[in-house]
Amino acid sequence: MFGYQVLGFGAGGGGAAPQTFDYLFIAGGGAGGQPVHAGGGGAGGLRTSYPGGTKVELEGGAVYTVTVGAGGNAPGANKGANSQIYITSPSVTFESTGGGGGGPQSPADPQDGGSGGGSYYTNGGSGNTPPFSPPQGNDGGKGPTPGHTGGGGGGAGGAGANPGNGGAGATVNITGSPFTAGGGGGGGYYSTNPPGGGAAGPGGGGTGYNNSNPGSNGLGGGGGGGSYVSPGGGDGGDGVIYFRYPNADTDPAIAPGSNTITSVGSDRLITFNVSGTLTVGG
Q: How many Å apart are CA 260 and CA 267, to the nearest integer?
């Protein structure tokens, strides 16, 4: 957890009162490996305080830079980008970590990350890297040698399979409607006959079947591993950031306009679908 504390002084402080928020940070998912029977991409790291966790307190009048992590791009074992809030003075970053890219068919390591990428020859990438408590993700899986299916990418709720399916995501409910996010990508498959490969991890992972698929945007899903039909593997899904606070509090100012503030019961919900800024106190 981030901890209950004032996170720096920001920029442009004007004496407004500090404000406390629940949060959900999901980073970008890792891309699936290439070319065939490669590992699935690891899901983007997932960190949340809701419900019942330690909230974050932001200084009144401060302007915070909020970065939504993009998914990794295939082909290649490309790691997803971090989702973070950045305070300029003093310089402090709080973040969830991008998912590790899946390992390729050749003997090479997958990437570590929020959740680790799956592999074919070696052990899967390590999840929860760097470490947070509670963990932001899990390890990727390993493919068999010899064999036809790569290891699944790790998910926010479980490790990738050895070999096969992507790790399951975690169920969150900060939006008022529970959903599952942070699913790992399935391992890719070598041949079209018989059909094979790993299933997508629930929560936005991409399949590693004969036609590998990307992870889902807004869920930080890992991309499916490269297969016989689509050797490049699937892209990782983009992340998202949410902040939740009571209706009685002043709405922060957010930018750009594609990000939103909506009502959720007796609370308000900020959704950052793209990177922008948050000004506490309006």
A: 14
Q: What is this structure's pTM?
A: 0.91
Neighbours of 92 (CB within 10 A): 13
| Terminal-to-terminal C-alpha distance of the chain | 26
* Burial classification of residue 218, based on how many CB atoms lie within 10 Å of its CB (0-12 exposed, 13-18 middle, 19 or more buried): middle
CA distance 273 to 245: 18
Q: ∠ CA(70), CA(76), CA(80), 5° rounding?
A: 20
| CA-to-CA dists, residue 88 to 156, 180, 200, 278, angstroms | 29, 33, 38, 13
pLDDT tens for 58-92 read 988 889 999 999 999 987 668 888 888 865 544 55
Is residue 22 within 8 Å of residue 55, measured between CB atoms?
Answer: yes
Task: Report which of 241, 248, 185, 211 is spatially closest to residue 24, judged by C-alpha positions.
Answer: 241
The DSSP output letter for 138 is: -
By DSSP bridging, strand 63-67 and strand 56-58 are unpaired
Q: What contacts 24+ positions apart, CB below 8 Å, involve 104-107?
A: 104/33, 104/34, 104/35, 104/38, 104/39, 104/76, 104/77, 104/226, 105/33, 105/34, 105/35, 105/36, 105/37, 105/38, 105/150, 105/226
